[in-house]
Structures are given as C-alpha cells and as structure tokens.
Amino acid sequence: MATFDHPVGIDIGGTGIKGAPVDVERGELATERLRLLTPKRATPEAVADVVTHLLKELDAPGPIGITLPAVVRGGVVRTASNIDHSWIGIDAAALFAETTGRPVAVMNDADAAGVAEINCGAGREKEGVVIMVTLGTGIGSAVFTDGVLVPNSELGHLPLHHGDAEDWSAESVHEHDDLSWKKWAHRVQTYLELVERVLWPELIIIGGGVSKKADKFLPRIEIDTPVVAAELHNDAGIIGAALAAPHA
To answer: How distant, in Å, are the alpha carbons of 1, 24, 198, 205 from that of 201?
Structure first.
C-alpha cells in the first residue's frame, strides 16, 4: 500500500487512463501502473467515474495530479482533443476534487510529460529554452525556459504545408500513410526546423510512445539544435502529473 509520501499521477488519454503513486524524490513509479479504458464517450462525468475506480484499485491515498489532452488554464479546460467537447469550460480541478475527496491539480498532458523530463529525465539541469515534443495521435508540446514551464503551448498547430503541423508529421500519420522511417523522419525534421526557427531552443526532447523506437528515426534528423529521445517514455505523464500534485 502506498503512503501519503507518494502523490498519485493519473494520465488521461484518448484510449486509456493510467495511473500510479510516484516516488517524486527518485522520479519513478512507486508501484506498477494500472490502466483502464477511456470511456467511448469521454464526458467529464464518465471520465471522473473511471478515475475514481482507478484510485480504488491503486489503493494509494495521496494527493493527485491529473493530465488531460487539453489546454488547461487555472484548472479550467479550454480545448478538447480525443475527449468529449463537453469538457470545454469545465473546472476539471474542482470536478476531480469533488469526486475523489482529495486535493487535485490538473494540467495539459504534454506539459506534464515535459515537467517529468525536465526534473527527472533528458532535460535535467538544462538551461535556456528546452522544448518537449510528444509525437502521437497529434503533436503535443511543452516549452521551458531555465527549467520553468510556459504552459499550454500548442506547437503541434503551427502552420505547415497549408494545415496544422500535426496533420503532416504526427506519429499517427506515419502509421496511417504507411510511411517508411526515412520518409517520416524527413517530415519530423521539417517540423522541427519550423520549431527551431520560431523559438531557437537549446534542446529538443522527443517524447510519446514512439520515443522507444528513437533509433529508427532520430539518427536521420539533422538540425542545428540537439535532439534527444525522452528517457521516461510512457511513464512521463504520470510522473509529471504527480510532481504537480498539491503538496508534492
């Protein structure tokens, strides 16, 4: 059983809701993570029910940090990606605090993954502008300056090839269009060149599930900015959420 020393991180995605208590001193999961399916209609009430059920299964009593695939400002959801649009305008922090009876912090999922990498992973002790890019169904991003998060960046929506960058270079496009690693790496490079021209970072960290296959595409990317794979992979969202939990 987890103790109050371990806040709980919960990462809400379009297909799964996963969580675990986190040892924030070591930057790692304190127990094995659990994963439940995201409801097909991922309304606030339906998701809150799954989160409550997940917490019961985890049997971890600490404060909670929760990620959402959305812009979250002051605990209030402003956009909705891969969750129901009824989330927009909802005070998610208040909703989860009421349903769980615990203190809760809510943040954007890419921001949470970035917080984990900056504190415990590939971005440790890096000064200047550091950008975390998560390649998945879309493209998420987290921007830091001297280790401080600039929340809710939406760099996946930078214009590229007459549309959003994520519609051309997300990992889902790699799969859907059956692109070779070489062709997809070229697309990712074009996107990262755009990010580089806009923000001139000192480091770019590539996250998302595909980061576990970084050896297949990162060596093909050549830009002026160093580009490295995330170290925490699919646990980054959980760890970052726990780091943001109240009293963490």
So the answer is: 42, 27, 9, 10
For 64-104, give the DSSP string. EEEEESS-EETTEE---SSS-GGGTT-BHHHHHHHHHSS-E
Give DSSP secondary structure letters for 196-246: HHHH--SEEEEESGGGGGGGGTGGG---SS-EEE-SSGGGHHHHHHHHHST
The class of domain 124-231 in CATH terms is: alpha beta
Superfamily of domain 8-111+236-244 in CATH is ATPase, nucleotide binding domain (3.30.420.40)
Confirm whether pTM is higher than 0.90: yes
The yes-or-no answer to whether 8-111+236-244 and 124-231 have a common fold is: yes
Enter the tokens of residue 53.
Answer: 């059920």
Please give the mean pLDDT across all residues of the chain. Answer: 95
pLDDT in tens, 28-79: 999 999 999 999 999 999 999 999 999 999 999 999 999 999 999 999 999 9
Q: pLDDT at residue 1 above 50?
A: no
Structure tokens at 92: 């998610």
Assigned token pair, 20: 């675990």
Domain ranges (residues) in the chain: 8-111+236-244, 124-231
